[in-house]
Write a structure and sequence with these properties.
Elements: H1 3-12, H2 14-22, E1 33-39, E2 42-47, E3 50-51, H3 53-57, H4 62-65, E4 69-75, E5 81-85, H5 86-102, E6 110-114, H6 119-131, E7 134-138, H7 144-154, E8 158-162, E9 164-167, E10 170-173, H8 175-184, E11 191-195, E12 209-211, H9 212-218, E13 229-230, E14 236-240, E15 248-252, H10 255-267, E16 276-279, H11 286-298, E17 302-307, H12 317-325, E18 327-332, H13 334-341, E19 358-362, H14 368-378, E20 382-385, E21 396-397, E22 414-415, E23 420-424, E24 438-443, E25 453-454, H15 458-465, E26 475-483, E27 489-494, E28 498-501, E29 504-507, H16 508-516, E30 521-531, E31 535-544, H17 554-571, E32 579-582, H18 596-603, H19 618-627
Parallel strand pairs: 4-17, 6-7, 6-8, 8-11, 11-12, 16-17, 16-18, 18-19, 19-20, 31-32
Antiparallel strand pairs: 1-2, 3-13, 4-5, 9-10, 14-15, 15-25, 21-22, 23-24, 24-26, 26-27, 28-29, 30-31
Helix pairs in contact: 1-2, 5-6, 7-8, 10-11, 13-14, 16-17, 18-19
The chain binds adenosine monophosphate (AMP).
The site of adenosine monophosphate has 20 residues, from strand 20, strand 26 and strand 27.
């Protein structure tokens, strides 16, 4: 059967298709119904079935693989390197589960994780899954304001954190940001569990902060059974940026997610149990949730948790790890490869990478030169895959595990089974034919693994994702796309104000709000500007309140610096604009709407489009002058 037939069946006979896929995981209680779609667009998968993500990722492998590697931890930041077998991982997860229970965490409680790439983060995620607590991991690169909004929305009973992360040899203290985040939030956690790595001294808050290492000894021999959860209960909430300043809590289920990941491990990644999967993402992003933690472990593979950059101690580190751990499947982001491309290409051939079968890249557009460079250099196929925090697993890629297909340069591939992908007209909602640019949309029901709703906000789920396309109830990805005559898709950028910096999704609105919190600013606009290394960078334009602060003056330079630091302090280094320019006015329509697209076009040296509605045409000249 060719891939197209398999995909067609997944749409025509959804229940039959997913019933078969569901056999890949352990069900403590079988499901009664494959899909309940009685309340569109809410899809409930494997209704009545009871299972547990931690059981599928850890316990299930104990009979056959207790002594096989499960978690391989490598930190080139601290020099730590250690492997946990499935048996050892089980022990650590149960211990962490007992620690959480001792803090009063139970079924349905939220646990927020603000952690660097350390094994305790994985133990904590799996421990939450084990006891039916809902984890919400906040990327370690975010700062106090980002944390505060997430703490307030997720209302965690407990937060698990650490003294510090480390990036390119520089210690990044977490505790001060966390304390500030909690101070800013209206909701306060009852306890904060601290993993002390000994990297950055911190003050413990009496009665609230608890040392994990001390508790670990007390719970070393604990027994904590898996809580059998109904398939549609909540496994986690992961916040992601959108058009508004308030991040959305992407809520995911238990059973559908487990099935989708298990299926993808074979159909898409072609991983083999017992071998090693190496994903260079971060647990703070969806790729880290799905393909550092849950996917590989559910499939019985060892997974590498890597704290470090691709170029330290040298540009061969990733390939050295491939050699050392006989990695068979690797998953990274185009930016990481573009960084390596600036280094001596001989790094690609200094190690024995013969174990590597495929390199998957995702998170941002993959340019052809980068794909060719790395594919030729390593001598392995490179497979682009397109998806989102919302989908949890690839929407577009190649399912070579079902039927091999050729890659097309510049295309992430074809719709994955279960996704009824359409390109539609943004105004009429009508489906478009081949080679016509439109919005990439998905006809519901969304397949297993995709978001269930926005955490505690069903209305926002519908209003955000299912109301963007007029006339039809379709899920909007907010990406422009095009399909060619062979059915391959191409992604042409976002339809909204979301930008993608080195594969990190950021909302320009959030950055603008941070800039506006500075008293010296009257208004501002942030746009994403094409960058050869990071794909895009954020560039801000701000109008100072004090007209005496003239562009180019010392006062202006000082203010620009302060603005950058304000963003870094509030949102984190990840959101810091590449540059903030001061201008006296922003280009706006006569009705007062900032013309972000025109600013972006001016920044990229493109045609600024139709400007008949612009209030003050000289405003764009200022933008161009600022860039010069
Ligand atoms: P995130 O939710 O952070 O994973 O970001 C999802 C967004 O990243 C998508 O909506 C796209 O704009 C972009 N994206 C992810 N993967 C790809 C890819 N393979 N090619 C092009 N854009 C991508």
């Amino acid at each position: 059967m060719g891939y197209h037939e398999a995909w067609q069946r997944s749409i025509d006979d959804r229940e039959g298709f997913w019933r078969e896929q569901a056999a890949r995981i352990h069900w403590q209680t079988p499901f009664e119904q494959v899909l309940d779609y009685s309340s569109p667009p809410f899809a409930r998968w494997f209704v009545g079935g009871r299972t547990n993500l931690c059981f599928n990722a850890v316990d299930r492998h104990l009979p056959a693989r207790a002594d096989a590697p499960a978690l391989i931890y490598v930190s080139t930041e601290t020099g730590q390197e250690r492997t946990w077998t499935f048996g050892e991982l089980h022990r650590e997860v149960v211990t962490m589960a007992a620690i959480l229970q001792a803090q009063g965490v139970g079924h349905g409680d939220r646990v927020l994780l603000y952690m660097p790439m350390i094994p305790e983060a994985v133990f904590a995620m799996l421990a939450c899954a084990r006891i039916g607590a809902i984890h919400s991991v906040v990327f370690g690169g975010f700062a106090s304001h980002s944390l505060a909004s997430r703490i307030e929305d997720a209302t965690p009973k407990v937060i698990v954190s650490a003294d510090a992360g480390s990036r390119a040899g520089k210690v990044v203290p977490y505790k001060g940001l966390l304390d500030e985040g909690i101070r800013l939030s209206a909701h306060k956690p009852e306890k904060v569990l601290m993993v002390d790595r000994g990297l950055a001294p911190f003050d413990a808050v009496a009665g609230r902060d608890v040392d994990v290492a001390a508790l670990r000894d007390a719970h070393r021999n604990a027994t904590v059974d898996c809580q059998w959860l109904e398939s549609n209960e909540v496994s986690y909430v992961l916040y992601t940026s959108g058009t508004t300043g308030k991040p959305k809590g992407v809520q995911r289920d238990v059973g559908g997610y487990a099935v989708a990941l298990a299926a993808s491990m074979e159909n898409i990644f072609r991983g083999e149990p017992g071998r090693t999967y190496f994903c260079t993402s971060d647990i703070g992003w969806v790729v880290g949730h799905s393909y550092i933690v849950y996917g590989p472990l559910i499939h019985g593979m060892a997974t590498i948790l890597y704290e470090g950059t691709p170029v330290r101690p040298d540009a061969g580190i990733l390939w050295q790890l491939v050699e050392r751990y006989r990695v068979s499947v690797m998953f990274s982001a185009p930016t990481a490869i573009r960084v390596l491309k600036k280094q001596d290409p001989s790094w690609l051939t200094r190690y024995d990478t013969s174990s590597l079968e495929t390199l998957f890249l995702a998170g941002e557009p993959l340019d052809e030169p980068t794909a060719t460079w790395i594919g030729d250099g390593l001598g392995v196929p490179v497979i682009d895959n397109y998806w989102q925090t919302e989908s949890g697993w690839p929407i577009l890629t190649l399912a070579n595990g079902i039927a091999p297909m050729v890659t097309k340069p510049g295309s992430p591939g074809v719709p994955m089974y279960g996704y009824d992908v359409q390109i539609v007209d943004e105004v009429t909602g009508e489906p478009l034919g081949a080679n016509q640019k439109g919005v990439l949309a998905i006809a519901p029901p969304l397949p297993p693994g995709c978001m269930q709703t926005v955490w505690r906000d069903d209305r926002r789920f519908i209003d955000t994702y299912f109301s963007a396309i007029p006339q039809r109830m379709l899920y909007s990805t907010f990406d422009w796309g095009i399909r060619d005559d062979d059915g391959y898709y191409f992604i042409l950028g976002r339809t909204d104000d979301v930008i993608n910096v080195a594969g990190h999704r950021l909302g320009t609105r959030e950055i603008e709000e941070a800039l506006l919190s500075h008293a010296g600013i009257a208004e501002c606009a942030v746009v994403g500007v094409a960058d050869s290394l990071k794909g895009q960078v954020a560039v801000g334009f701000a109008v100072p309140r004090d007209a005496a602060v003239v562009t180019g003056s010392d006062a202006a330079l000082a203010l620009e610096g302060e603005l950058m630091r304000t963003v870094e302090r509030q949102l984190g280094a990840v959101a810091r604009p590449a540059r903030v320019h001061l201008v006296t006015t922003l280009p706006k329509t006569r009705s007062g709407k900032v013309l972000r697209r025109s600013i972006q076009a001016a920044c990229e040296g493109r045609d600024t489009g139709d400007l008949t509605t612009i209030e003050d045409p000289t405003a764009l000249d200022q933008i161009r002058a600022a860039l010069r």
